[in-house]
Specification:
Blueprint (H helix, E strand, L loop, with lengths): L1 E2 L4 H11 L5 E5 L7 H8 L4 E6 H17 L8 E3 L7 H11 L5 E6 L1 H13 L5 E4 L12 E5 L2 E5 L6 E5 H5 L5 H10 L1 H13 L7 H8 L2 H4 L3 H5 L3 H21 L8 H11 L11 H20 L8 H7 L3 H12 L2 H14 L3 H25 L3 H10 L13 H14 L5 H7 L3 H8 L9
Length: 451
């Protein structure tokens, strides 16, 4: 069941049918007071326990509680974090201890942090849960998995998405700035993530699932088409953002990986998470890091498109391909931090191919390059336009705005390649032996990240 705008309704209902976990999504204006309806439809006469923090309780939690009481639904004592809640393992344990002896379905009222904490705890307690969104800050509402900091690094814990999602556009339009801008940057990144999937498909590494692709990419340009409206928190503009973020999560549920919504763009963000990057005393938002990662990966895509890969000497590229022992030494030299290096070694080992397989991939990509290049050109939003869209939505467009220098960004290209097994434009540039040359051009005067 769903409530949404026009033609999005059919797409949303199709996505719900394909979703593994979520059964109902209610999107619209003044719908937060309708939360008891889908809760009762999914969970019957079960009790609800509301989970929020101080801010999200004031934004929507009190309205949800009042609505549940008005409808006579059973309620356990609500659990409320303070204003300094963080998606860390300590807070997971705190919430789990509070809910373990409470026979009730958790209702998460909040955005990324509250949703991820509740998602993981509900899974550990073997319960479904419901999510009431208070900001369009990320695509995690309907995504599988929870992003939690554990043992010093951000990790994704496998756990089901919510059974029910309620997204009230009036509540979300009043979210504190720049939370909806975070979500806009995350949604815009799906364009370059799609380009990475196109490359992986063409190389024979990971085929595109047409239905999942359409869920994310079919109306993406429409959903990101009013960035200035996001900066104004206009409810109609926010509707497209919410729809797009929910669809991205549904696609990940259906595909059971984050491939439909995450490519090299997210690898930059994950890298800086793992390095515990802070700027002016705080960690930049996931969305803003992804936004800079989008521009970084788009610069490499555009460098690739400026080349004719049919001219690459495959024999030379294969001969230069390192054995894994060399790769492992390079990783340890590049990262220094042993725990991070160990993670990078593990991830890179999965995707490091032997020379014969590399040759096949390169010959395949060369053979289809004219058609592939045209497809990528037609798919990708040009970098100048992406910068303008991000700026209009109130997002950073220069790495320095999130505390990343040009020098560090260049090193981050190298490091980002190693931290995930996912095949992206970073892998194509490495396999063809043009990675370093591409970075020289990107960071040269006149390049995308000129000094």
């Amino acid at each position: 069941m769903s409530a949404s705008s026009g033609s999005t309704t059919a797409l949303l209902e199709k996505a719900l049918r394909a979703a593994r976990d979520t059964r109902r999504a209610i999107v619209g204006r003044a719908v937060v007071s309708q939360a008891p309806g889908p809760f009762a439809a999914e969970f019957g006469d079960a009790s609800a326990v509301l989970v929020s923090d101080l801010n999200t309780f004031n934004a929507a939690g009190r309205t949800v509680l009042d609505a549940f009481r008005r409808e006579g639904l059973a309620l356990a004592e609500p659990f409320q974090f303070g204003i300094d809640v963080y998606a860390g393992y300590d807070d997971v344990e705190k919430l789990e201890a509070a809910l373990a002896d409470v026979d009730a379905i958790p209702v998460a009222v909040g955005s990324g942090t509250i949703n991820d904490l509740t998602k993981l705890v509900a899974h550990r307690l073997r319960r479904p849960y419901m999510s009431v969104a208070t900001a369009a800050s990320m695509d995690g509402y309907t995504a599988f998995g929870a992003s939690i900091t554990h043992n010093g690094s951000k990790q994704t814990f496998d756990c089901p998405a919510p059974r029910v999602v309620v997204a009230d556009l009036d509540v979300i339009a009043h979210a504190p700035a720049p939370m909806n801008s975070w979500g806009y940057a995350d949604l815009l990144a799906k364009n370059v993530a799609g380009a990475d999937w196109i490359l992986a498909d063409a190389a024979g590494v990971e085929p595109i699932d047409a239905d999942v692709w359409e869920t994310v990419q079919g109306r993406l340009r429409e959903w990101v088409g009013d960035p200035s409206g996001i900066a104004r928190n206009d409810p109609e503009s926010v509707q497209g953002l919410v729809d797009g973020l929910l669809m991205s999560g549904f696609a990940m549920q259906a595909h059971q990986t984050s491939r439909p919504a995450s490519g090299a763009d997210h690898q930059f963000s994950h890298l800086w998470d793992m390095q515990h990057h802070t700027f002016e005393g705080v960690a930049p938002s996931h969305g803003f890091k992804v936004g800079i990662g989008t521009l970084a990966s788009l610069a490499l895509h555009e460098d690739l498109l400026a080349r004719d890969l049919r001219d690459v000497d495959v024999d030379r590229a294969v001969a230069a391909w390192p054995v894994f022992e060399q790769v492992e030494r390079r990783i340890h030299d590049l990262f220094g931090d042993e725990s991070l290096a160990a993670k990078a070694v593990k991830e890179t080992r999965v995707k490091h191919v032997p020379p014969d397989e590399l040759r096949e991939q390169l010959l395949q990509l060369k053979a289809v390059w004219p058609e592939l290049r045209n497809r990528l050109k037609n798919h990708l939003i040009p970098s100048a336009e992406v910068r303008s869209m991000l700026r209009a939505a109130g997002c950073p467009t220069r790495p320095e705005e999130i505390g990343i220098s040009r020098e560090r960004l260049r090193v981050s290209y190298d490091q980002a390649y190693y931290i995930r097994r996912r095949f992206t434009v970073l892998d194509v540039a490495r396999r063809f032996g043009i990675f370093d040359d591409a970075l020289d051009r990107i960071f040269a005067p006149g390049g995308a990240f000129a000094p």
